[in-house]
Design brief:
The protein has 370 residues and is of the alpha/beta class. The protein has two domains: 3-211 and 342-367, P-loop containing nucleotide triphosphate hydrolases (Rossmann fold); 218-334, Udp-n-acetylmuramoylalanyl-d-glutamate--2,6- Diaminopimelate Ligase, Chain: A, domain 1 (3-Layer(aba) Sandwich), CATH 3.40.1390. The protein contains 15 helices and 14 strands. The strands form four sheets. Strands 2-7-1-8-9-10 form a six-stranded parallel β-sheet, with helices on both faces. Strand 8, helix 7 (152-168) and strand 9 (172-180) form a beta-alpha-beta unit. It is globular, with a radius of gyration of 23 Å. 39% of the residues are buried.
């Protein structure tokens, strides 16, 4: 009989999909094969064949070379108007349940272990009577909850999710804390383990905070500003160690140009842009194999002049234009949460390695027994 686990989180942007990547990766070293599905999806996209599937399903199918039918891996989607159609009686819950069960049965018969990813916290989907706790119950799977790497607030959020599981009679296999700061790891591990004992739930892992996993790429910035790269298009997946808003004199700016830096400045600041290009070419001449790995976001009411664009294009520096002022652009970036994308293999591998190294898989497998 197939073993399995249902993964939910305490809220948005907790790192559920990132954690799932590491769990599938780690479980694949312990089983001949691991199946994956996401029964209910919200953010979806069309494949080349015109089939709409959850975007996370595409990520997992591609990265792990999963052979299962993509329609089975993503059986139910919530497109615009779905909730209203359900409440109007145009969609029947029984049909949705049957589709989920049939998809799970089809995939699980091919794998000794299943990872089933939910959508958000345990209450998401309640309006159509298919929240994560309900789906876990339908599939008869224990639930693993991913929470933020804190103590008090994290436990408060866990308690809300615990109540949903208790309501539907779903066993909680354990808790994984994500993005735990290293200086607090020992304290959080000790006291969260102690707090979870009241529910008889184990703490199965504390995944450390890693800034790289939260670092957006140029492609992320392009999506954030709803635009596209004007130059350096082959560097859409470039990450940056530093993001600098440049509003100072060019003399001061020259002293703070470093490698792997994203520079934000008005398109009208040609002195700053030209100083950046000068440093780029000086480095290329003195160290031909070196690359400063720069990036630019140019802002303001007016886009960069074509003559300037051509110079940036020659340097092949990734650059986009956002028609907002620089301070608004920086605020948008600081409040933006980047998601792991299918094409960002470097981030996928890093995420999987970090999770694998900080989860007690043997205990997780024992706890996955219903």
């Amino acid at each position: 009989m197939t073993k399995g686990i249902f993964i939910a989180a305490t809220g948005q942007n907790v790192g559920k999909t990132t954690t799932c990547l590491g769990l599938v990766s780690g479980l694949k070293t312990r089983y001949s094969s691991v199946g994956y599905m996401k029964p209910v999806g919200q953010e979806h996209m069309k494949t080349e064949t015109g089939v709409s599937v959850d975007k996370d399903v595409l990520l997992f199918k591609s990265h792990f070379s999963l052979a299962d039918s993509i329609e089975m891996m993503s059986p139910i989607l919530f497109p615009r108007g779905f909730t209203r159609d359900f409440l109007d009686g145009k969609i029947q819950r029984e049909d949705l349940v049957q589709k989920i069960q049939q998809s799970f049965a089809s995939i699980s018969q091919k794998h000794p272990f299943m990872v089933v990813e939910g959508t958000g916290h345990t209450g998401v989907g309640s309006i159509v009577e298919l929240n994560n706790a309900q789906v876990a119950k339908i599939l008869n799977l224990p639930l693993l909850i991913i929470a933020s790497g804190g103590l008090g607030s994290s436990f408060d959020e866990l308690s809300l999710n615990f109540a949903q599981c208790e309501k539907y009679g779903v066993k909680i296999a354990g808790v994984i804390l994500n993005r735990v700061f290293e200086e607090k790891r020992a304290m959080i591990t000790r006291y969260m383990t102690q707090a979870l004992k009241r529910w008889n739930i184990p703490l199965l892992g504390c995944i450390p905070y890693n800034s790289f996993l939260s670092t957006p790429t140029m492609n992320d910035f392009a999506q954030l500003f709803q635009t596209e790269l004007l130059t350096g298009k082959k560097f859409t997946l470039r990450h940056f160690e530093q993001i600098r808003l440049v509003a100072t004199s060019v003399e001061i700016y020259r002293t703070v140009i470093v490698s792997n830096q994203l520079m934000i400045t008005p398109a009208s600041r040609e002195d700053i842009i030209l100083a950046t290009l000068t440093r780029f070419w000086d480095t290329k001449i003195s160290h031909p194999d070196d690359d400063l790995e720069m990036g630019m976001i140019l802002t303001g009411k007016l886009p960069p002049k074509e003559s300037l664009l051509e110079q940036i294009r020659q340097a092949d520096i990734p650059m986009l234009y956002a028609p907002v002022n620089s301070f608004v652009a920086l605020k948008m970036i600081n409040t933006y949460t980047s998601k792991i994308r299918q094409e960002d293999t470097l981030k996928i591998h890093r995420a999987a390695h970090i999770v694998e190294s900080h989860v007690d898989f043997e205990r997780l497998i024992r706890c996955s027994h219903q």
